[in-house]
Amino acid sequence: MKNSKFIYYILQISFLIILNSCINYNQCRGQEYTIENINYQQLSLKIENYFKSNPNIEIKLEESNSQTPWKVDKIIYWNDLNKRVNFYIHKGDQNINQLPTITFTHIGDKELKSYKDINSKEISKELNQTYLKKFENDFLNKLGVNWKSKICF
Predict the structure, then answer these.
(1) Could you count the other beta carbons within 10 Å of the beta carbon of residue 47?
(2) What's the pTM value of the predicted model, to 2 decimals?
(3) Sorting pLDDT into bands at 50, 70 and 90, what band is 148?
């Protein structure tokens, strides 16, 4: 009888631990945006033109490398918030007609000492929404592209 109670309690505790880890797990860190009606090459031109027409925005471009040939990393610096914004462009697979996506991954300080993931518990919901709206209004909308955000559950 004592063994069955002990096993029962162990199972209960195990279940609660598993349940807690599932509740605290956020499967989609970052915010993904599908860019509609254009391919990667067209999007790259729009981004290049955006940065040429906004010279006050500091930017660092990193071309894809052999470990990640499917993406191009980019960094923007928001002077008004004193924040560095990291995102990457998913080029798509071999299919040239596949729609590209932009994933806003994290935000941090200018010195690259610390950062916090977008859509994570590292940032309050209110501040996260502020960053998402700024990224959408100050970058995506100014590219002149149609985009849809992927819902993060």
Answers:
(1) 19
(2) 0.73
(3) very high
